Amino acid sequence: MALSRDEITEKVREALVDALGVDEGEVVATARIGADLGAESIDYLDIVFRLEKAFNIKIPRGDLFPDNVLTSEEFVQNGKLTDRGLAELKARMPYADLAQFEKNPNVQDIADLFTVEMIVRYVEGKLGGAGA
Amino acid sequence: MRWIWIDKFVEFERGRRAVSVKNVTLAEEHLHDHVPGYPLHPPALMIEGMAQTGGVLVGEAFDFQEKVVLAKVTRAVFHRHVRPGDQIRLEAVVQGEVRSEGAGIEGRITCNGLLVAEIEMMFAHLDQSRVPLDLDEENFVFTEDFIRMLRMRNLGQLPPPEPGGA
Amino acid sequence: MRFFLVDRLLELEPPKRVVGIKNLSLAEEYLADHFPAYPVLPGVMMLEALVQSAAWLVRASTDFEKTVVLLREARNVRYGSFVRPGGQLVMEVEALDVGRDSSRFRAAGQCDGQAAVQARLVLEHWNVADEDPGNADLDDRLRAFWRERFRIVGGPQALTAAAGT
User: Which residues of C touch B146 (CB under 8 A)?
Assistant: First the structure.
């Protein structure tokens, strides 16, 4: 399935518009799924199902939106990610841009990493890898 | 008035698809308010019928151990009106697969083969954070009464849905 | 149980917005099933409360012209906190467009300051005679019925309250 980045972006946009009820115009690359597009916890699962269907891929729990990093004691202390937590997050989200986040790794800011761009890169990674 | 908006299951395939039916009858009180002199089965109660059909489909996948509740109605579009004497057929199909975090279903309601509504919805499990601790043990969503009334112990004996539906 | 989900209109500013309330009481029998030992207002009843609030805005904006106002589409209906017996749902509905035959809204319900429900709604409006000719007299009776209910739910006061703010 050799989809171009534009084609992937278009399908991701469609999935977000359907799941979140936002206008197409709001779904820009830097838009944060939560803060900008209004996604709440149940919406993340809806997005996962729609992406699975649109791209014929499997997205295991926590693969796209890592949730366990937020709660585990070894990764979080005083609301910030520990070094191990940061390493774990990097390993779990190789497609995310963590440069800014690293400077002040507050757990509550992790959600800001979930942008449209991040999802597109994740899908690219899943499709470009060894088969879908 | 009972809060049960489906009457029985007619097709069932664990974790994948289920079909229920609901009879609409003048014996139902709400029809006399909605609308006086011109009874119409309310769209919101059709959404609930789909939620109960989908909720049982999702709940059964966990042997009714989880308190499955409606978390979101992504879209519900109504095409036709439903009246006393009609029987509607509610078909729920799991999106992808049922997961421990929740599930999504795509639903279609038909009457005599004609499309009445298309509904997409998501379910979540009610956990301790939203329910008082002393009630956590009970499954008040799937009670013995509910299971008995909808004959849910027989679901495994029902035929699986035909591809494409009616 | 009576299928009226708006107990009182608080503010009514046709064709722009409406605010109404629904009280929840253990007297409502269906609560015994939803759920046993943990009664809460069902999500679709919160949705219906929003729909009926929007319907009042339609009627007040169109001089009660169409006698049947029905939900045609609901999108992005999301639920937050529960409404429990003794609690009150406050419905706030903002019209995006009110036409003769249909209307669109952004609607939200709160209980104790917490978001309970939000939704986007499309309603359809028609007369019984449109679907079933020969029912003009029923439509007349329905118009009178809705005007009377408008009085019951404090419609005239809600119009004044909105004008005053």
Answer: 33
